[in-house]
Every structure is written in C-alpha cells, then in structure tokens.
Amino acid sequence: MKKYAYEARDSADNKIVRSTVQAESESSAAKLLTAQGFIPLKIELDDEKSGFFRRLSGRITTKDKIVFTRQLATLIGAGLPLAQSMRTVLDQTTNKRMQEVVQDVIVDIESGKTLSDAFSKHPEVFDKVFIALVTAGEASGTLDDALRRVAAQQEKDAAMMSKIRGALTYPIIVLVVILLVVAFMLITVVPQVENLYKDLHKELPLITQIMVNVANFFMSFWWLVLIVLCVGGYFFMQYLKTDSGIRNKDLFKLNVPMFSGMFRKLYMARFSRTGQTLLSTGVAMLDMLHISSEAVNNTIIGETIERAADRVKGGKALSTSLKDEEYILEMVPQMINIGEQSGKIDDMMGKCAQIYEDELDEEIKAISTAIEPVLMVVLAIVAGGMVGAILFPIYSLVNGINL
Fold first, then answer.
1. Domains of the chain (ranges, CATH numbers)
2. Measured between alpha carbons, how far is 308 from 315 in angstroms, rounded to an integer?
3. Residues 210-247: tens digit of each pLDDT
4. CB-based burial of residue 57 (10 Å sphere; 0-12 exposed, 13-18 middle, 19+ buried)?
C-alpha cells in the first residue's frame, strides 16, 4: 500500500478537501475517493520529505487537541450527526496539520469506519487513552461524555507539565548566565592579565595560569569544541531514543536529587487520573492498567503497573498488587483499597490524583522558592572566583611594585 496526497471536491457540499489516502495505485486511490463521494482533482504520491517539513511547520499542540475534543463533544451532545459534527469542527480548526487529520477522519467515518478506528490511524495525535475512552463511549452510547473526560484529562496533564517546565526554566536561565559570565571573563579579561604579567616579566599565579590555559585553548580550538559539542549532543539525543537511553532517563527522573519527589508525584497523579477516567467510562480493569502503564510516560513506572496487572490477572486485588512496589507511593494502594471495599475505585483514584496534583503544585512552589538562593550562591561563587583569580595577581603586582 502506498500513501497518496489528494485534492478533491466533496459532492455533498461542494467543498475542496485536501488529505491523504492509502491505496495500491493512483487509479485505486481515485476509485476509493469516488466511492466515498469525492470528485478527485489532484492525486500524487505523498512525498515523505515534504511531509516532514509540513509536520514541522504545522505541529499539533495540546491546546489544539483540547479545543478539538471539547468542540466535538459539545456538537455530539447537542444531537448533531457524527459526520456533520466533524465537518463543523473542521471549519473552526485553524491548524493546517489538524485540518488534514480531521479531513482524513471524516473520510474514514463516511466510508463506514467507527470514530475510534478513524482516530487510531493517527497515533501521533490521538494516544491510547484517547482511543480507549472513545471506544468505551461508542460502546455505551456516551461518546460526548467520553470526549469531555478525555479533554479534562488532557487539560490537567498539560497544566501539571506547564508548572514543572516553569519550575525548571529559572535554574536553566541562571546556569546559562553563569556560563556566559565565565566565557566573557575568559575571552576578554584573562588575556589582558596575561599580557600585563608578560610585560613585567612576572610569573602568573597557578589559578590564573590555569584560567589562561583554558582561555587560550577555547580561543584557539573553539571550532573543535563546537564540533565535539554538536557531535556529542547528536549522539546523546540518539542514545535517549534507544530502549536503554529511555530507561536510564526515566530512572534518573525518579532518583535525581531535589526533583525526584516532584517527578514521582507527577507519575502517581497521572496514573491515578488516567485510571479514574478510564474506569468511570467503563473500561475493564486490566485494559485500564495496560493503557495507564503507557500513559504515565515512564518505562520504570510502566513496568511496575504491568507487574501489578499480571497479579490482578492472577486473582489478587489491585491495592495488594501495587503495595510493595518501590516507586508506587503509599497513598495510591491505600486509596485504591478503600475504593475496593466501597466499590468506587474510580472515585478513590480521582481523589488520589487530586491530592497528588495539589501536593505537586505546592512542591513546585517550594522548589522554585528554595532554588533561587542556591543558584544565587553558585553564581556568586563562580563570579567571585573568577574575579578573585583576576584581581589577586593584579594586587600582588601592585604590592611588588610598592616594595
């Protein structure tokens, strides 16, 4: 099967539609479009390179997904047919890439596929949690409720990630400032101190000599440093895409000093919120665990949840299955145990998620407050050390001249 990009006129409303279709040949693609009620205007083999640049220029953001989901839920809840609801959402969508996805979904729906099947063709846009909720909504006849739940899930997840990024932004900016200060001193001030000592035929102090050697190396081999950084950065990014790299990155997040507690609460909140959303929509317990293991976006936590799923499959309670796992915080199995006894596991998981989201919010504020003086001290030590290494030899020269 090949992928063809097409431009066609919809015979129903006379609108121009641009999207892609899978077919054996160009003629097969034309027949498929005609059968779906389109008049093909242009069909060509999809260029993957142009598609790459198109994806870069039209990236679908979380906000785009949330707006799309809420609009679709509102229209379906108002009683509009699914295809008509999708076309109305398409008219209100401004993101070009999202428009292509929606058009492709409309084509699949009108050809007889279910909404969940149509969404599943675009895993880069609609993840497994999204598909599972839509599938459950279709089966129970509560598609609008399912879509509202997934939109709420996306909003809460996006809000948590935004807070974490905000907490990490400040230290990154300060570290960049420190590096710029060091680079400025090495390139502009240190060489002048060296020249001063040469003119007076004096020997530099050890710490200043080290700084001079470092400055000379960077000024003479800056191109080599740049190449090493670029090549090293490239291979490091490639390593992070491997199974080993992903696992080590996820393990680092769970154990990194100062931030490990924040990340652990994030994953517990994400697991609990996803579990609550799936269970309340009618997804089976084992399916919920398998989907949640991927939704937490951490392989270590995911493996933990999968081990718990195996125990649940063997007849154990979920709370017991999670109880002794290293990276599962104590409150999670405790709240689930209460839910098991009351028959309201989804409600308890929702309350657990809310508690961790609130704690995460407070911890982010605490870290942001605590990290500022620490970074200021680091900046003062680095800048003070640089200034001391420069002023000390000058002070020694002045004393030597006075003597």
1. 1-57 (3.10.20), 154-403 (1.20.81.30)
2. 11
3. 878 888 888 888 899 899 999 999 999 999 989 899 99
4. exposed
